[in-house]
Amino acid sequence: MTTNPFILDAECLHKAFGGLMAISDLSFKVREGEIKSVIGPNGAGKTTLFNLITGVHPASSGKIHFQGKPINGLKPHVIARLGISRTFQTVELFSQMTVLENVMVGCHPRSRAGLFSSGFRLPHMRKEEKWIRDQSFEILKLGSLLGRADLPAGSLPLGEQKTLEVLRALATGPKLILLDEPAAGLNEVETQKMADLLYSIRDSGVTILLVEHDMSLVMKVSDEILVINYGEKIAEGPPAQIQNDQKVIEAYLGGEALLCLN
Amino acid sequence: MGKNNYLKLLVMAAIIAVVPLIVSGDYHLSILVFMGINCMVVVGLSLLMGYAGQISLGHAAFFGIGAYSTGILTTQFGLSIYAAFLCGILFSSLVAVIIGIPALRLQGHYLAIATLGIGEIIYIIFNEMVGLTGGPSGLSNIPAFHVGGYPFSHSIQYYYLVWGALLVILWFSLNLIHSRVGRALKAMHGSEVAAGAMGINLSAYKIQIFVLSAIYASIAGSIYAHFVSFIAPNNFAFMNSIMFLMMGVVGGLHNIWGAVMGASLMTFLPEYLRVFKEFDILIYGAILLAILLFMPEGFLEGIPMLYRKYFKRGEA
Questions:
Q1: B181–A104 CB contact, under 8 Å
Q2: Of A201, B125, B197, B252, which shows the fewest CB atoms inside 10 Å?
């Protein structure tokens, strides 16, 4: 196999919920090692797109290839094990569990102990358990959440919950990480921290697909941007090009606003 | 599993060893045997419901499968008790897998109704397969449990058997909770989408834990059959499933120790309320109601919570 520069390749994706076309004829590629953002007005289909890639919803038609292999129709946990991890728009932490335990759950795809070896605490399970714990502490360090390790995840302020979700996704050892509005509801300082975290994730060799409404963050961190509206691609390219794209401005401000501006 | 839980297990082992020095008489000891049997079933329910978040309203059926398996195999097929025990475990696991694969696709109320229906079907089978089970009139002359040819002739032997087995089950369960598997179960209970995104195979874990809880119930059922030597379908009817559930809820299902406490209290209570004669049911009901109203988390966590609320107000 020749080296493929694209880690994710979506072809002619369609997704209909009843009569509503959430995604229609969407094709795009994600280059390995880049930060690619998906933007678009509310209801444009960004989260639906994430749900298609991670297998939460099956696509009505179209193909998704991850590292050259088709992943359509696979279950979410299988896709996660292949190396695609994600966060959620509305925080989906295991709020009753501690911060540390949340990250430890994230280590699930990289560990194997089953019911039997866990119940009897066999030696290899204990070794693995120690590895999971050490690994999780390392990951907590990345997001400066070490001091919060033993608190219930639900008790953290929103900014830290968002960070924890990213860390938990990172713990799965992904090659591609999908972040759904990681900066929503964060203040400026927290957003800056999130940007730093994104850079350090990318620098560790993980490709990022980002959905975000904070335009200054998107323009700053993205290598490439995909703009969708009503489930269709309206533009794709580097930030500088997107900022001046007529169709994008129209989608965001509305056709009429554009007329008024003229 | 944490030093705390090892300590609790040790304390429990010590209590188990000491109790027979204080309690004597067949009646009291047999209540303790039933207590241990109930604990076993409810610990399984706690794993299934409290940790994995899957409801079962038909666990008396697995209790019954364990009881009838050893009962039938030892009386009618002349199998040794140990082989019969093992067959009971295998058979209930098999039934749990066959039932679990379709049923655990359902969620919430639907799963509750499905398990209720399955419990009822198995109850009907116990009643109707007269040739094997003896039908409504029951199966009698189930031999006593024995070790190395020495049959158990006294409740005290069953007492040690049941509580010893329960200790092992508790050790296994506590290990499980404090492991990768236990975290996966709790994660699944917290958010199924997020658990799936973490690579957790939801349906596989649901089945595994359903089977494990069925095995616990089956072991309890087998011991029960040898202890009472006579079983009838009524011992495994719907009300018994509800009773197991109730024991867990009263003690607190999301904590293994709560399940143990709940099962113990609910076995013990009706026996000792008999001094109130015809009022016993009333008092029993009132106690249950009070626990559920004031301690919806179960009394193991509810009592300290109420204590903090009413006696330490100023310090908070």
A1: no
A2: B125
